[in-house]
Amino acid sequence: MEKKTVDALAVSGKKVLVRVDFNVPLDEYLAITDDRRIIAALPTIRSIISRGGIAILMSHLGRPKGGPEARYSLKPAAEHLAKLLGQPVRLAPDCVGEQVRHMVSALKPGDVLVLENTRFHKGEEKNDPQLADELAALGDLYVNDAFGTAHRKHASTYGVPEKLGAGRRAIGLLIQKELQFLGQSLEHPQHPFIAILGGAKVSDKIAVIENLLTKADHVLIGGAMAYTFFMAQGKKVGNSLCEKDKVPLAKSLLEKAGGKLVLPTDTVVATEMTDQAKTSVVSGDIPDGMEGFDIGPATAKHYAALISTARTVVWNGPMGVFEKKPFQNGTRVVAESMAGVTAHGATTIIGGGDSAAAIEEFGLADKVSHVSTGGGASLEFLEGKGFPCLDLLDNA
Prior knowledge:
Blueprint: E1 15-19, H1 36-49, E2 54-58, H2 75-85, E3 90-91, H3 98-105, E4 112-114, H4 129-136, E5 141-144, H5 155-164, E6 169-171, H6 173-187, E7 193-197, H7 206-213, E8 218-221, H8 225-232, H9 247-257, E9 261-262, E10 266-270, E11 280-283, E12 291-295, H10 297-307, E13 312-316, H11 329-342, E14 347-350, H12 353-361, E15 370-371, H13 375-383, H14 388-391
Parallel strand pairs: 1-2, 1-5, 2-4, 3-4, 5-6, 7-8, 7-13, 8-9, 13-14, 14-15
Antiparallel strand pairs: 10-11, 10-12
Helix pairs in contact: 1-2, 4-5, 7-13, 8-9, 10-11
């Protein structure tokens, strides 16, 4: 997918509408607890303002119920962006309306304005033509740098670039990087290619597993989704989280995969999911009254050995409940193994979501090739789906 990038746009003196992803986590005091998405947008913003352009940033935050809610304001994001850029960043009271138009008309080259949460309008998620018209009227050019929402046809991601038309639309530098890693590495991976999938539900990853089985040499399974596969093999899973209605599907995936689908051979079990839980390791059946919360040490060692042979590794979903200390080992071993193989020249990609949170927690985010900023978007990419919001933008 060769797309025109922001660097190829003539931005001097132009108002550039930039769809960023400032959907950052906030604590109870509305302080940002993880600013990676704001940091990831800096290269695109700097590309615009350093060349005399005006950056008008659009984003959503959280899930407001169709109207303004103070806890979902982009005020903390705008204030943090100002510190990162080292210059004033204004926050508009809305994303459209007369007051916003007045603020936009007063902007000068090099200025940055953050529009208030686009999801304060019900029309955003419905790709409402009127909202798209009003947003599009604020700018001369459009840049999409919000990979986390690039799979959703919303007013700010699809309607606006559609209104502005060809010759005025590009991708940002973050999306360029996402496409480079998730796109090129998946389409033309160096082998051996190892995919690692975790998380709670097989049903969330069916299409991903089916797509990756056609490309990867091995697909390693962890997390609670493993227990549905266990049940498909006729094993007992105790009280473990399991999708009983997906057992026939898991059985068919195992048959289709041959030896490519690799399941845990041992499991860390406990009666409770707490930091004080007393754990034991079982091979095969999980006893009644016990619940699986992580892959076992033998499985972790086996997975590490497979990863060590890889030239390409893609990981989406933790191996266990890594947020609790007794169940961290499997996820930590995978993270450390990926860092190790990266140092020897392999391409290693973390597919957003909980995997990104885990590798950040273990202090290894800068030891892998790429950490995706999109959870759901990364999954859809791994499924092999198209992205209409990116297809719409100008080709290089």
